[in-house]
Amino acid sequence: MKDSHPVSEDSEEEEEEEEEMTEADKQFIADDDEEEEEIGYRRRKKKKRERKVEEDFDNLSEDDLDLINENQGRNKKTKRLKLRAVDEDDLAKDLFDDDEKEEDEDLDDFIVREDEDDLETEEMLLERQMQRRQQRLQNQGILNDIQERYGVDDDMWDDITAIFGTGQEYDWALYPDQAVPQDEEEAPKKQKEITLKDVYEPTEIKSKMLTEEDDMIRVRDIPERMQLKGEPSVPTDAEIAKEALYITRLFMKERQSVSEKAMLTCVTCVLRFLKRDHLEVPFIKTHRKDYYDGILFHYDLWKIVDLDEQYVQAERKKKSLYELLERINSLNPDAKNSTPYQLLEHVMTLDEANDVQQLIQVEFSAELDELNQVNIKRRVKKAQWKQLYEEGLKNNIGEFCQLFNIDISSYIHSITTQQTTHFPEDDTELPMDAASHFVSQPFPSPELVLQAARIIIGQRIAAQPSVKNFIRRVYQTDAVVTVTPTEKGRKEIDSRHPYYAFKYLTAKHVFNCNDQLFLQLLDAETNGLITIDIKVEEEERLMEDVCKFICNDYVNERSIEWNKERTKIADYCFREILFPYAAKWLKEKQALLSSQYVATACQLALEKKINIAPFRNTQHQDGAFEDEAPIVMSISWGEGQRNSPAYCAIIGETGELRDYIKLELLTLKDRHGDVDRLMDMCMEHAPEVIVIGGFTPSTKTQLLKIMIEEVSEKGASLGKYSTPIPVLLVEDEVARLYMNSKTSEQQFPEYPPLLRYCISLGRKTQNPTLEYCALYNNDEDWKAIRLHPQQHLLPDDTFKACVERAYINIVNTCGVDINLAANHAHLSHSLQFVSGLGPRKAQAMISKITRTGGKLESRADLIKKGLCGARIFINCASFIRVRGFHFKASYRESTLDVLDDTRIHPEDYELARKMAADALDLDDAVLEDDDNPSQHVQDLMENEVERLNLLMLDDYAVELERQIHEPKKICLHDIKDELMHPFSEKRNRFMPATPDEAFFMLTGESDATLREGTLTSASVLRAKDRFLVCQLPSGIEGLVFFKELDLPYGHEEEPRLTELYESGTILPVIVLKLDKERLSVELTARKASLDQPQPGVPKDEFFSVERERDDEAKYNRIEKKVRPKQSRIIPHPFFKDMDYKEAQEYLSTRPLGDIVVRPSTKGNNHLSITWKCDNDMVQHLDVLELQKENEWTLGKKLKIDELEFNEIDQIVAEYIEPMVRKIQMMQKHPKYQKKTLTEMFDFIDDQVVRNKRSAYGFISNQDKPGSFYLVYKHPSASRKFEVVSVKTNGYMFRKKLIPRIDDLLAFFKHDEASKAQQQARRMQQERPKQQTVPDPRLQQRDPRLERPQAPQESRSFVPRYRN
Question: Does pLDDT of 636 surpass 90?
Fold first, then answer.
């Protein structure tokens, strides 16, 4: 790869549409000679083929020809096919024509006559080619019209052609010989208009917002977001006044200090702007402050929008109920005089509308049933009461209900006013006797009659809107919430679970639940963790009043019986209908309030993220920044792993990638070459800032230091640039989302994700607002922005609305450079949030600007060039910036209006010009300059802007209001501020990542996951004499000092940590001190600290500890009945309540040496320790506990075999960890093989045969975990294996403890040699002695032949074993 990769800027510019003939068109027009040659060749080829076809047909019989014709569906004689040239236009026409053609019609197009006179002449062919060329140009024009009509930009059109092609790709396969029908009488087909349905799939059309509905939204002169809410209507003055009164009363509940009349006036004006003038909130906030300032705040405008939406929903419901009553009136003429019809006139909320609907279902149940039978398509939902209600009405139970003498309206009045106004009279018969007169087949007993009567009367009482409203108010003020965990929740919600805070929530008043609590409660209930009980705290007292008012005061036997039945009615009505209804209503209401709370928090969090100004190295005194964005160098090495490459990117002023390099050596010590390349890149491109991002702490501890010291400061000292370049560590949330998004893959498909990460990091530095806006796309990348811990619990529509509002608020504060957006796709995402626009209108506006020259010269061109309508222009004009640096100096001075780059609205341009003229003491004639009416404004802004402070704007505002009847005081002051500081930056200054942001970015830890007192694990990196250097799982390095360690027992001298701890040892630790700035921690591994109870999730104020304790005791009693033994709980991080099977399963995925301390089946005076000694192999240790205080505590002395320990950590450090190290050493030894015993036998047999000597090796002992087999074989002996047991201080082999593996092998070889020699001597002794005469020659041997014998004890190795 080359050192640098410059990126061409031509791809960033839009190519002008070519009107002249392309090279592809010219290929269709050939010279006469070439045409004659080609035509002659075609005619010869055609005749030859026709002759061959005729010969083939001559060889067929008539029966064969008839059979062929019949199979092909033809009755006529088979005709020959004649071929013609088919160009791309014909194929495109076929592709884009959605008329269904019959197969016979296609065949007819190719059937020609056999007459030779029908052959095309050369002139006809030339003429046909010219016609096709003209048709091709016409088709291209149609495609261009589609592109312009639907607002499809060039990038999207490129996507269309890339996916669907141009209709020319398969000519070579479809028409190899260019077949054409020969029939000259064929009439030319009419060109069909191409639609997007012929190009896109329906899902693609919808996702890209190209449907007919989307097209209508683009065209209509109403803000896009208003259209999406529904068909906007223009209300009358009376309707606005009614709604304003409703909203004002809601506001006055929170604004006691404000006059209700003033509030009503402000709300009325805002509603008129929203609903009649179709003005969006950003416009009202900016240009209509005179109408609400001092009474309403800017966030109140959004609240009015929400309340208006709720009011409109209620009105729609109200309208549908009116229509329903009209239909009922056709069956029952009294419907319009009924109570529901009268109540509808006073309905203001959706709850009240639902109450009336329920009352209609009760009072007109028969009419609704008849309507359902008559009109099946428009069935009305029936009330959800029991079937006994309808059966009772059909069987005259309604007449029996009259005997109870319950006046429902009087009864409800008594309940709501707490005054006794209801006095029911008793019937002359007892209830049971009276009920016996109404016995029928569906109700065969008096008891069933009484039951049906209770249902009918109870439903009628419960359906009354007044009693429902009363119950809702009671629950809203007096209801309490109680939470009970389910069996699943009791097990899953421990002290560290986020829902532990309300696990045993008891009697918490609803009015205290004003945060995200109910969202969490509903989520936990949905997941089956808890059950929620909502009821009135004084429910029994409420029921006493309810039952008291339904009865009379008589004390005779009849009254007592009738009052009992009336009490049952009240009990059924309230306990089974109204109380569950109110609890459900309150739960939904509180969930909505919690959603609004979390949504508002998300909106504020996102506004804080995007309300950041672009980075500027220098700032002018007036607060305005330079026009163009800075050149940025961004660099990252990702995870920072050794030998992994780093990437550096140069981002130009408009966010384009100018250059980049891949750095292979930056993570190494010898990185001088990469550092030199970075300095050369800085010298070439002169970036104003260097920004750094990454994923690990090394980004801040190492890379930041390299860039500051070795690149920025060193480069400046070498004279490669004048001053050191600022180096910043930048928060990278948006870059992380961008690097793996579909958008980045489409924009930079050939670049790796880390380079795309650097590109986004640089763009965010140039303009954080724009880079965050780019996440609001069809792929919904904005959903991944971290805003609130409970944002995932919000409904999608609610979350999207709060995110969109945050974008709208900030984008309309800083404005949008329309020419940058039109010429650079990655800078156009913020345009959709401009007041009055949306994604569809913004897309169409950019497309039209691109096709009319690529630049917008003035705000007035929005109307002149047809980019938007009058209403949209009023909404968006002041937020669209026409900046002068896009144009040449001469053009800028003569044509551009300086007011087009201010927040002043075009409707106030005349005021601004008048103010400038008055400040310069010019007469009104200067205002009549048609060429450049704002020239004197520009002169004022450049030279004498301070003169504006001399104007008496308050007096002018009074006079202006008298003339035009509009308040303009605040508007005039805003105009003055804009003339003095045009589009001054109101966003927060760009700053590097804060310590909290950098800490989370580089470690993934937050205050919730890592803080002082957090229990975690640490891996030893290095052991020093007085401390350990450890690393947490998140990559943070920490120190464990000598005094924070529990050292092993039995050492007379102070031990050295380097001898006790090896690299890779895992320690349970607690965080003592956290330094986010240095990304370091201080830790402790002392048992006393580990045994301390860890802080869990804070409990709610209404958390019942007594209920928790009783629930645990109840569970323990149940468990004791099920299990013969109660599980022990040992306060140690390695303890887990598991049996041996669960421990084995848990350790199967853990690393070697991991430990589980668990209860023992031998009783409470034993513990079991299971530790992993190899893959799929664990060893179980039985620990005897001595000196126990009671049955459940841990013994002060722990004994394994004959070894005694004082605590579990001592067992781990002195018993298990040494064995783990011994096992690891054995597995790393060259003689160790990962084989079974059978495989090892085959292996050593092969070694003996191949090497002609003994062979041996180690394997793991599957039968006894924690030990090994030494498998060996001598050439003339059989295979053998022996056990090598692992001990804390060595290896036990042949009843001898050997500290090292090499010593074990030396002992083994020496012992085997000794056995061989002993066996040889025994065989020599057993051999029979022979009587022979000694040879005197043998008695005198040459001393030179005598071999010196080495001492036996000095032979430590025998090369070959002998029998």
Answer: yes
Whether 200 contacts 162, CB under 8 Å: no
By the 10 Å C-beta count (0-12 exposed, 13-18 middle, 19+ buried), 233 is classed as exposed
Residue 942 has a CB neighbour count (10 Å cut-off) of 9
Q: Tell me the C-alpha distance between 742 and 162, whole Å.
A: 16
Q: Could you give the C-alpha distances from 3 to 636, 657, 659, 718, in angstroms and in order?
A: 17, 15, 10, 21
pLDDT bin (cut points 50, 70, 90) of residue 8 is very low
d(CA 765, CA 206): 34
CA distance 882 to 871: 20
3-state secondary structure 571-621: HHHHHHHHHHHHHHHHHHHHHHHHHHHHHHHHHHHHHHHHCECCCCCCCCC
Query: Which residues, listed in sequence order, are joined to residue 1073 by a DSSP beta bridge?
Result: 1082
Q: How large is the average pLDDT for residues 1217-1230?
A: 86
Q: List phi, psi (to 5°) of 625.
A: -100, 175
Phi then psi for 665, rounded to 5 degrees?
Answer: -110, 0
Which comes out higher in pLDDT, residue 508 or 892? 508
* DSSP letter, residue 158: H
Neighbours of 1180 (CB within 10 A): 16
Q: State the number of CA atoms in the 13 A half-sphere of 725 facing the CB.
A: 29
| CB contact at 8 A, 211 and 205 | yes
- Tell me: pLDDT of 301 over 70: yes
Are 683 and 720 contacting, i.e. CB atoms less than 8 angstroms apart?
Answer: yes
Distance CA 1272, CA 1278 (A): 9
Helix (H) or strand (E) holding 1023, with range, is strand 1015-1023
Give exposure, 276-307, as e/b (b: 16+ Cβ within 10 Å). Answer: eebbbbbbbbbbbbbbbeebbeeebbbebbeb
Sign of the dihedral defined by the CA atoms of residues 813, 814, 820, 825, in that order? negative
Under DSSP, is residue 1258 helix (H, G, I), strand (E, B) or coil? strand
Phi, psi of 104 (to 5 degrees): -65, -35
893 contacts: CB under 8 Å, gap ≥ 6: none
Q: What is the pLDDT of residue 22?
A: 39
From residue 796, alpha-carbon distances to 309, 779, 780, 782 in Å are 18, 14, 11, 12
Cβ(1307)–Cβ(1293) under 8 Å? yes
Whether pLDDT at 86 is above 60: no
CA 164 to chain centre: 31
pLDDT confidence bin for 1157, thresholds 50/70/90: confident
703: nearest Cα among 644, 617, 765: 644
> What gap in Å lies between CA 542 and CA 121, rounded to an integer?
103
CB atoms within 10 A of CB 611: 18
On whether the CB atoms of residues 232 and 278 are closer than 8 A, the answer is yes
Give start and end residues of each alpha helix (H) in 330-464. Answer: 339-344, 350-363, 365-374, 387-394, 397-401, 408-417, 431-436, 446-462
Q: Using alpha carbons, select from 739, 801, 738 the residue that is nearest to residue 772.
A: 738
CA distance 215 to 817: 25
Is the Cβ–Cβ distance between 754 and 647 less than 8 Å?
A: yes
- Residue 650's DSSP bridge partners are 633, 659
Model confidence pTM above 0.85: no
Mean pLDDT, residues 796-810 taken together: 93
DSSP 266-335: HHHHHHIIIIIS---HHHHHHH-GGGTBTTB-HHHHHHHHHHHHHHHHHHHHHHHHHHHHHHHHTT-GGG
**Packing angle of the helix pair 365-374, 350-363 (nearest 10 deg):** 90
How confident is the prediction for the chain on average, in pLDDT? 79
Cα separations in angstroms, 698 against 593, 619, 706, 1039, 1063: 44, 32, 11, 17, 20
CA dihedral 900, 903, 908, 914 (to 10 degrees): -80
